[in-house]
Structures are given as C-alpha cells and as structure tokens.
Amino acid sequence: MRRPPLRPVVWQPPPAPARARERGGPRPLPPVRLIELGGTGPEDVVVDGDGRVVTGVEDGRVLRIDPDGRAEVVADTGGRPLGIELLGDGRLLVCDARRGLLAVDPERGAIETLVDRVASEPLRFCNNAAVGRDQTVYFTDSSRHFGIDHWRADLLEHSGTGRLLRRDPGGDVTVLLEGLQFANGVALGEDEAFVVVAETGAYRLTRLWLTGERAGQSDLLVDNLPGFPDNIAAGPSGLIWVALGSPRNPLLDRLLPLHPALRRAVWALPRRVQPGPVRTLWVLAVDQEGRVVHDLQGPGDDFHMVTGVREHAGKVYLGSLVEPAVAVLDLEG
After folding, report:
1. Which residues contact 114 (CB under 8 A, 6 or more apart)?
2. Could you tell me the pTM of the whole model?
C-alpha cells in the first residue's frame, strides 16, 4: 500500500482544544540530567523491568545503565544499533542499520538475526520497531536507496522508498506500507488496534489500522509537524511520544516541490551549505486521536538532536544520534 505524495505544508500551532489539553499550556523544559555513557550516539532508549536504561551507540555496543548511572556492555552488534525494544522473552530487539533486525540476549551477549532481507532484497536501513503482545514485530526500513551514512541524501532526494514491515512470531515478513518518506519511528496504539509510523521526510505520523472495520486502511494521526519526527514510543495512558530531531528547515521545505535534479544538486554541495539540523531539545506527546498533550522544548545547549524518547515512572528518557549521553527529564513536578 503506497502513501500519497507529500503536499507542501506550513506548520500551524495546534488548535485551541488541543492546546488546552497541555498541562498549563506550552511547558518550560524541566531540568535536564545527563547520564554519560563512554560512547557516542545513543539513538534510541528503552527501560527494562528493573529500571535500567538500554541503548546502542555508534561503535556497535549495546549498553545497559543501572539506576546509579553505571553502564555495562551487554552485546556488540558489529554494526550500528538504532531502535531498541524489549522482545518479551528476556531478549532485546535491536534495529541495526547495517545488519538488520536482531534479537540480543543481554545476559550472554548472543545475537540472532531475525530479518536481514525481504524477498531476497537486503534491508538497507533498518531503523525502529514496536513489539506486540504476541511478539509480532513492526519495523521500518527507512530507505531502499541510502543507508545510515547518507540519511541526509534520502531527505533531499525525497523519492519515498521507506517501508513499514511486519515479522510474525513464525518469522514470516510482510510489507504493510511502502512509498513512505523516510520511514522512522514505530509505536502501537492502545489494544494494538493500530500501528503508527513516523515519516521524517513528510513531517507526519501515519496510522495503519490493524483491527476492526478499518483494518488494512491507513490515515494520518498527526500531519504538518513543526519538526523532523524521529523515533516514537507508546507511553502510559495511551500517549505516543515523538522525538523531534530538529525544527523544520525553510530551505528544505522550498526544495521538496522542486524537480529531483535540483534536489540532487543540493546533495552534491559541501555539507556546510546543505540544509542541516538546528540545535534544539524537543519532544511531543499526543493522545490516540493525535491531540497534543505535552510539548517540551528548549535550547539544545546541553543536549540536542533528540532521536529517541521513552516515558517511564514519571521520567522521560531521551536518546540522540550525536550526543555522548542519555538525557533524563522529570515529567512530574
């Protein structure tokens, strides 16, 4: 099932009823606490049953951090771990941008490859996932043209080759949606009635219904986001948290409707003159209807380019593609 082409849009603030749902309106950013890792690029984060934060860094290591901030290496994928989830059988599910979808035993360090190709085509950019109650895995392949080393090229090319896939408990893999603009974060709705995928290059959250009368149909949960959505995660009370890596770039917005040859010409320019991310710390939470519940943002002086987000026990844990730490915000208070 293909998504319709992107129509250029300009961000508008959420309507008044949605803003009213926020706790006292737009919130100032709570104090940011950093957990140093001894590694760079904790792109995603998850919290296990013992309150330990698990993340993967750019050198391939999967780290587990105890509540006192001590980090231990539980595995080394030999690739680039991105999205990370609890698989439900004691193992971790790791989306490795270079190796595919992996199951990692954090006690023994053993790694099993679950998916590294679809219909004989290698996964080029396995990015993020969500796990159902029966261990069905929904995951993204961000681009069929570019790998992680050239993620900017996919946003500029804007050809829409991203996919949302499903791996059932028996190991069969199905393409659920294709034609996505840089398919990124994945989250399941309440009761697993739908799955949501972030389209970074289209500034939107696309919803695919899994049950009920609309099963198999897709629509938009949130459109016209103010920044680039990255990983997303289901939280308590049915919230879906959204990491925004950077505000939208006006130059990129103007480039997207242009002829592909012009966008490719921009990609050929030196990186310093290409559209790039802006330092900011920004996460949103929306409810099951896409209404804004939390809008937490601030300058990225101490932590920026938020790519992962997870709510646990009144705190929000943040990952970043470029930082050497995991950030923690106190949501309560």
Report:
1. 93, 100, 101, 102, 103, 137, 167, 171
2. 0.89
